[in-house]
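Hi R.,

As promised, here are both runs. First protein below:
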Amino acid sequence: MNLPNKLTVGRIILVPFFVAAMLIDFPLHHLVALIIFVIASLTDMLDGKIARKNNLVTDFGKFADPLADKILVLAALLCFVQNGYCDCVAVIIVLFREFSVTSIRLVSASKGKVVAANIFGKIKTVSQMIAIIAILLMQFVLDLPSVGFAFPSGLSDTLNVVFFAVGEALIWISTIFAAISGIIYIIENRKFISEM
């Protein structure tokens, strides 16, 4: 297994640690989750660059890289729903998009063709990662009083309201990108859909 593929597999391996950091309540657990998510996101950036630069692009990488992205992002979004940080409707739309695209990929693979992610899928992934990182960062700020950092009177409530609104906006922006990229993906690969 080449280095880019190892990075992709490493990203998948980080997911349970991220989920544990999100769901187990301990001091600054959002900071731990943020660090794990950022490391996983960096592997996403690195694996593609290394693969293209060193001519290490493989069919496994074309399939596993977007799959690893989906696993990481969906794990984060589902944890957000569990913790009340985002609307489940947005996550349902993203899940529908991901299952649709993955189904097309599986059909195309059965026909001997590996369909790599397109630019719109990459924009979708980047917007999701930005939204997730921003929400984790905001939750970390809200965690600070649990370790002795005191906010001025009333600021905590204000931050809760503002951070929730900003987080929802970022999630919905990334959801719109997800829907658009899914529609484009379906249109570009409609020949495989007709063969289903």
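And here is the second one, sequence first, then its structure tokens:
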Amino acid sequence: MHIKFGNYPQGADGKKAPIEWLVLDVSDNEALIISRYGLDCKQYHSEYVDMTWENCDLRKWLNNDFLEVAFSDDERKKIKVSNLKNDDNDDPEFDTRGGNNTKDLVFCLSIAEAEKYLRNHKNRKCEPTAYSLEQGVSVDFDDKSHCYWWLRSPGCKQDYAAIVDGQDALEFGSSSVSYDGCAVRPTLWIVLNK
């Protein structure tokens, strides 16, 4: 199921258009939604250093700049504060720290959430918008309609973060936090009929 909520640049010309969201979960009068497309291209963090979700630049951008640009005052009132559990990457090869739990309005899925809500390659497929391609999003070599996108979980080392790759596979080892080719798929809980 898709819904439209907020507006963000999506064409190569940078003009705003309604954001399409996939509904991942509904609980009582609330829905967990993720952008249908890779909306922008951002680094997880601007420096190649050890980093967790709590302190990364991507979290700051989502909860400040993106929030202000994408949603009106009335729309922002419908977005719930989410209590996020930032698990360690417990792959036996890595065992990297997830850091402190956080409270966020907008976030990226964790590895566990991606496995729960997007169980197969088809569900994890993410197409970039023309705007995100202009910003530098990387696409799969074989299928240019699939892009790489960030998860908030740590990767194989503390200076890496997990991603979904261009072939829609969860990459627990993932990419350097300063990699500049990953799309952003904002995720949030909204209150319905508010």
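A quick note on the second one: The longest strand covers residues 16-27. Let me know what you think.

Best,
J.
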